[in-house]
Amino acid sequence: MRDSFGVGGVSVFDRIAYDPTLMNGHPIIRGMRFPVKTVVRMVAGGMTVEDIQQERASVLGP
């Protein structure tokens, strides 16, 4: 297991899921059906964690 940890000491890899039957097999944020590539693009575009949380809530609901 890698030692890459995110917020609160939770492994980043524990938050990413892959299932070929969901989202055409693209990696997603576990339990959300929110593509990892979308989050990466948001961060690359300068969005903060708070911005992403607000955007996710407006698209996916609370």
From TrEMBL:
Entries under Gene3D superfamilies matching the protein: Winged helix-like DNA-binding domain superfamily/Winged helix DNA-binding domain
UniProt-recorded name of the protein: DUF433 domain-containing protein
Q: Which organism is it from?
A: Sediminivirga luteola
